[in-house]
């Protein structure tokens, strides 16, 4: 029985409010696994190459039921999330040795998945990506869950029309940068906000028409009035809170607010209320939440468009890559603070293909 | 020159927050008018029969621009609102002596309207109502602006489907009672809230499936979970604030929240924030504001349906009628407190038809 080291991102302690601390609430710990041990008949063993660090991971860290989202992580257990991996061995029919798998697994170097697990349906064999010529990590980014979220949230909920004004918050993030660039492709005027000057520079570089650093802006409502003198038609909301209030002071008639997430509230010590919701009444504006899972069945259209835009150079995608699983806990904390630039990825191992 | 007394509802003082006080912020004052004096060439003189007291009147009392709603009332000037009246004399082509007019005019016994006034387009000749066999006041209620609001807000924004669960707040009010009854006509399960036991009794009487007095309910979120065990599909929101938060804890996937108004915020000393908006994301729920003016062009369909429902006895409409214009200021304050029962009307004079 040979034990192989197996590093894992583990939840140490639930945290309902406030920012998590690496080492206190989450940490990377070394366990071990016998890669030769027999699997159960409904299991497959995966070697993980890429871990995706996404804001939604904050929810299950709270330890409370989130009403339809993922269930809480257990204390002392390995957290789960999106990964890209290769099958080492498998007792599951549709997973063969060497297959590339994208999906939700434990966040560790070697992950066992089970066909009876509730998340199993999220795990998909995607051998096509071996020859795609695109970075592997794109498949948990611009071509993965964040890409799907951006594409369908913007198109199906935001219903953009050429010539309209789009505002995107967290615009340099995993989802925001895609939304803004699709906005430009479709002929909208695109405004973005982010929290560092370096992100702001990136947004200008990829074609945003107007940008601002919200951390250096005293009055976001006035700033938006200045940058969007004709008002906002579509707001792609990644942050909620004060930014949403500022938008509600600047919406046009029949504006659509596609609510993807409200990251400003995830780590807040106190719930931040939205105080001017009444503004949607005279404007006949709409706030609509959505989850990427509503659109999984439309993935083919998404992949076709986005691969084409990437190949034509109309869409660029910035990632922040941590080169070692040891960095996973701090990387997640950094995402919560917005310290990362672009999609946060952990490179765990290199694939052999 | 014979002067005729002309009582008017006058704004004495703007009030941004808190509840208005009759005699301090608004009052009925007696002026006079020479009914024989010549009119300008773009004017008509009306004898007012009915004044409609609506919650939206609170907005222009604030003295600040409300972003797309009606402009503020001027201090010392007669307030405006919906009225029903008869033309005494007219220099405007489309208004003839004896015509019945429904629309927005000054709230006084004798109102002069001008074809150059921004609200003139709201004034419509409606001689058909002379022979309708229905109470005159219905035309500023169930067959007027509140009716249109209920009908189109519920049908076009709420998009109800048979078998779904509808919740209506301020359910015994001018709009809410109509929404709930249309919900029953369309085969939904209908839940309503109101602020007095007497209103609750009325809601049961007109067929609501479940009702509660929110002033006697400690935890509205739990109350709604109990009364709507299968969740809420459509919420017709008249109140905002805490009630909206309670609904957001109980919405089903793809729920529609039609936001008609947020009366809980109109008189609040402090803005009441909504703290759980993030709930719309996993549920793919939607909040959509609307204004009745979006649907004026569809009035024919509305009138046909509602008149039929009234005549068939499927729809009943309760009004609270003050018999004298002297009561107008206190009646408006009462509407703000929810002390009225049903649509608040002021009977100013009897028509001769």
Automatic annotation (TrEMBL), chains A, B:
Keyword list, A-Z: Oxidoreductase
Domain (Enoyl reductase (ER)) ranges: 23-346
Family annotation (Gene3D superfamilies): Medium-chain alcohol dehydrogenases, catalytic domain, NAD(P)-binding Rossmann-like Domain
Pfam short name (any one): ADH_N_2
Listed transmembrane segments: none
Top-rank taxon, per record: Eukaryota
Any one Gene Ontology molecular-function term assigned to this protein's record: oxidoreductase activity, acting on the CH-CH group of donors, NAD or NADP as acceptor
Name of protein: Enoyl reductase (ER) domain-containing protein
Organism placement in taxonomy: Eukaryota, Fungi, Fungi incertae sedis, Mucoromycota, Mucoromycotina
